[in-house]
Amino acid sequence: MQTYEIPLVPGPTAVCQEVLAAYQVDYGSADLEPEFLKLYGDVQSQLQHIMGTQNQIALMSGEGMVALWGALKSAVQPGEKVLAIATGVFGYGIGDMARAVGAEVETVGFDYDQAATDLARVEKAIRRFRPKMVTLVHCETPSGIMNPAAEVGALVGAYDVPLYYVDAVASMGGAPVKADEWRIDLCLGGTQKVFSSLPDLGIVAVSERAWGFIDEVGYQGYDALAPFRTALADAYFPYTPNWHAVAGLCTASGLLLDEGLEVAFARHKEAAAYCRKRVQEMGLSLFPRDPATSAPTVTVVKVPEGVGWNQLDAALRRRGMVVGGSYGPLADKVFRLGHMGCQADMDLLERGMDTLAEVVQELGV
Ligand SMILES: *Cc1c(COP(=O)(O)O)cnc(C)c1O
């Protein structure tokens, strides 16, 4: 199988060696072992630090999408109102998912190269539509945009919106996420972005308010959140938990906390700044309209005129480097450099940017 020495894809990210080692341990198979319950509790408290919350955390088998779907289906019933704030593929997508669940959805839509910084528009929509839930994507990975989750949270609080649903899959661990301070009821994460683990767990921090609605909705299914409210206390999980995945996540979140969250955030910021500087020096253009809204975990660059994405991708791969393309309306228009988790590493990025510079020269951009 072909492998690449310079992995700069924005998820699934390269898996840290220490994390991979946690998968190589044999843990035994039962889900009721006291060792497993202790591990789950440890991961929960580590994630609570990383997500800035005291709320209980559900670890569901699957990946980020299982958290996104499960939280929607568990907290919203057909006919209820969901206001989707959308600035990119995931933001618009969550609106579509809520519609599929039967919700009455209104979207406050922005261009893909913009963040939801026009809060007056958001406020107006909340005031008029009176949603049960507001949804937001903190870091739009396909377009490299950071949305103002704190400011939207303040509006959610001011207008007593019952539920605030935030996709923090690609920011959690690489940028401050303060679920309690920002009044987030359903804070969603995954393992294969900043945690640099395998794509095997969906993470949801659930507020007391959200548990109340989850009870009321009564959704049952493989991706239901309800059983996780009592799973740890009762030592009874809805299905066999993925012990290896939970151990991997424990190691991954432990690494971030040992490093120090502020230090990890600074490392991501520095990685992002370095990539942006190098890319612009090559004569390439960044995608976000306002650099201040760029994500610290991913840099999104316009595919240069006259060069196709496929050609660029092939030339990079020939040199052992793999980056991300994009999808939806951005397919072939931009490419993405993922510098999250283990990939927010200056040696790796230096090699990556040197390689990109060679390819840009070769292709005569
Ligand atoms: C990666 C990602 C997800 C989860 O998608 P998966 O396909 O499960 O990895 C959700 N939201 C955002 C913003 C992401 O970057």
The percent range for strand residues is 15-25%
Q: Number of helix segments?
A: 12
Multimeric organization: single chain
Compute the average pLDDT: 96
Predict the CATH topology of the largest domain: Aspartate Aminotransferase, domain 2
Terminal residue distance: 31 Å
Structural class, judged by helices and strands?
A: alpha/beta
| Amount of helix | 40-55%
The CATH superfamily of the largest domain turns out to be Type I PLP-dependent aspartate aminotransferase-like (Major domain)
**What would you call the shape?**
globular
How big is the Rg?
20 Å
Biggest sheet, spatial arrangement of strands: 2-10-9-8-5-3-4
- The SSE string, one letter per element, is EHHEHEHEHEEEHEEEHHHHEHEEH
User: Which regions have little confidence, pLDDT < 50, spanning 5+ residues?
Assistant: none
Largest sheet: 7 strands, mixed
Annotation, overall tally of beta strands: 13
CATH architectural type of the largest domain: 3-Layer(aba) Sandwich
Bound molecules: pyridoxal-5'-phosphate
Integer tally of domains: 2
Class of the largest domain, according to the CATH hierarchy? Alpha Beta
Please tell me about this protein's structure.
The chain has helices at residues 17-23, 34-51, 64-75, 89-100, 119-129, 149-158, 208-217, 231-234, 243-259, 261-281, 309-318, 346-362, and strands at 6-8, 56-61, 81-86, 104-109, 133-137, 139-140, 145-146, 163-167, 186-190, 201-206, 298-302, 321-323, 334-338. With 365 residues, it is of the alpha/beta class. It folds into two domains: 6-13 and 261-362, Alpha-Beta Complex (Aspartate Aminotransferase, domain 1); 17-258, 3-Layer(aba) Sandwich (Aspartate Aminotransferase, domain 2), CATH 3.40.640.10. The strands form four sheets. It has a seven-stranded mixed β-sheet with strand order 2-10-9-8-5-3-4, sandwiched between helices. The chain has a two-stranded parallel sheet with strand order 1-12. Helix 1 runs antiparallel to helix 9 (243-259) and helix 2 (34-51) crosses helix 9 (243-259). The model has no long low-confidence stretch (mean pLDDT 96).
